[in-house]
Specification:
Helix 4 packs across helix 6, helix 6 runs antiparallel to helix 7 and helix 7 crosses helix 8. The protein is mainly α. It has one domain. 68% of the residues lie in helices and 0% in strands. The chain contains eight helices and no strands.
Length: 195
């Protein structure tokens, strides 16, 4: 693809936000966005996982799967790489920041099945990105995901003080807010789109 890594990085944050344009990674996004601190911690973990696994999966795909003609195993191999790295990250977070580890709870190991993580790895292969583009896309997607979850967490904190109709409390109002944020990000789509 003829798009520069710099443009790809910014496009992954704003115009092609993995969460707000593709709606990937919604489970942990909706669940962990109750508190800004835990949302920030999970967002940093997602950035780290997306950056490293996009690089690892690019290398595995181009230097293992393609040469041996086993591209049909890419889903399984990508998930194994993601799961192994998330397990490593979970051990590090538990060892060095136990408060964050306990605040994230079950959602830290669930990064393994976060569809945004696998989606970035698949998009980089489908769109034929080179290594630098893949890493830029991974970092940008992670930052875009962090930006989206922090915005929702901040808005949910403000909504605690306001009256929300009973039928919209919880996931209902969160999905409405997410839809409005996605519409706001559509305003950036005239700058650059990645397909």
């Amino acid at each position: 693809m003829d798009i520069s890594a710099f443009v790809l990085f910014w496009a992954a944050i704003f115009t092609s936000n993995i969460l707000l344009t593709n709606f990937l990674g919604m489970c942990s996004y909706l669940s962990v966005s109750r508190e800004i601190e835990s949302a920030f911690g999970l967002g940093i973990a997602v950035i780290f996982v997306l950056t490293v696994t996009s690089a690892l999966n690019w290398v595995v795909y181009h230097y293992l799967l393609v040469p041996f003609g086993i591209v049909y195993l890419q889903y399984i191999v990508f998930i194994i790489v993601i799961a192994a790295f998330v397990q490593f990250l979970e051990l590090v977070i538990e060892r060095y920041t136990p408060a964050l580890y306990y605040s994230l709870g079950i959602f830290l190991p669930l990064i393994t099945v976060n569809c945004a993580i696998l989606g970035v790895s698949l998009f980089m292969i489908i769109r034929n990105y080179n290594f630098i583009q893949s890493v830029a896309y991974g970092v940008g997607s992670g930052i875009g995901w962090l930006l989206a979850i922090l915005m929702l967490a901040g808005l949910r904190r403000k909504l605690k003080e306001k009256l929300v109709p009973i039928g919209l409390q919880g996931a209902g109002i969160s999905l409405i807010i997410t839809g409005i944020m996605a519409l706001a990000f559509v305003g950036f789509s005239g700058i650059v789109q990645i397909q």
